[in-house]
Design goal:
Number of domains: 1
CATH superfamily: NAD(P)-binding Rossmann-like Domain
Helix content: 40-55%
CATH topology: Rossmann fold
Order of helices and strands: EHEHEHEHEHEEHEHHE
Number of helices: 8
Radius of gyration: 18 Å
CATH class: Alpha Beta
Strand content: 15-25%
Structural class: alpha/beta
CATH architecture: 3-Layer(aba) Sandwich
Strand order of the largest sheet: 3-2-1-4-5-6-9
Length: about 240
């Protein structure tokens, strides 16, 4: 796959685009001139994003199905061209009563919704990201990944595994773009992790006006950091864990 010209508009896939965080990220990316492939299981939600922003193209896909993700990638490439960015915002929370209260069904939900969707999308779009002059991949992780509790052990383990996967991608970008010792190359692609305690949005504040949400990260702040990925040097971003707490 040939690298795209840096002068062309960015094509960014936002997986999990209809959440409050997803909508904020989509808006921020449109704000920097990107074309966004808004992906979700919610047809009405992605259609709403496309109606709100001319630069957004809606796609409905079960990201836990690798073959479906392959078809999605074919459609996005046909509609927009090669992909420059993948922002993975698919997630969920399941907890239990201590270690013995960690249920198998909760583990399966977390494994499928968080880790499987990450693996499927990142493997599928990896060639595009590696070839792009501005390839960027990012996930939102949690403080719990490195500070797990017994009640949230399954969630923390899945988040830690997701971080390890992204760091593996970062190593792949680094190795592919390092060049030879005598002919070093500029790094153009990066994989990064945003670490939060939890996310908060205006709807949550309205529904709980007396709650302070200490340590929470507003979705608008996350969105600003996501859009800033594409203007920062890849060599400085690649493999980083950026704490937004």
């Amino acid at each position: 796959m040939n690298a795209r010209s840096a002068l062309l508009p960015l094509n960014v896939v936002v997986a999990g685009s209809t959440s409050a965080a997803g909508r904020a990220v989509v808006e921020a990316l449109v704000g920097i001139g990107a074309r966004v492939a808004a992906v979700d299981l919610d047809p009405a939600g992605v259609e709403s994003l496309a109606e709100t922003h001319e630069e957004v193209v809606p796609y409905v896909c079960n990201l836990a199905d690798l073959s479906a993700v392959g078809n999605l990638a074919d459609s996005i490439r046909a509609d927009l061209g090669p992909v420059d960015g993948l922002i993975h915002l698919v997630g969920g929370w399941r907890g239990g009563d201590g270690i013995r209260g960690q249920k198998d069904e909760d583990w399966e939900v977390l494994h499928t919704s968080v880790l499987t969707t990450l693996r499927n999308t990142s493997r599928t779009f990896y060639p595009d990201l590696e070839a792009s002059p501005s390839g960027r991949m990012a996930i939102v992780s949690a403080v719990a990944a490195s500070q797990p509790t017994a009640s949230g052990a399954a969630y923390a383990a899945i988040k830690a595994a997701s971080e390890a996967w992204v760091l593996g991608m970062a190593d792949g970008f680094r190795r592919a773009q390092s060049g030879h010792k005598d002919e070093p190359k500029e790094q153009t692609s990066a994989a990064a992790i945003f670490v939060v305690k939890a996310l908060v949005d205006e709807t949550m504040r309205t529904e709980a006006p007396h709650r302070a949400f200490p340590g929470y990260t507003d979705v608008s702040e996350l969105a600003d950091h996501v859009s800033a990925l594409f203007s920062a040097p890849a060599s400085e971003l690649n493999g980083t864990r950026q704490h937004l707490v």
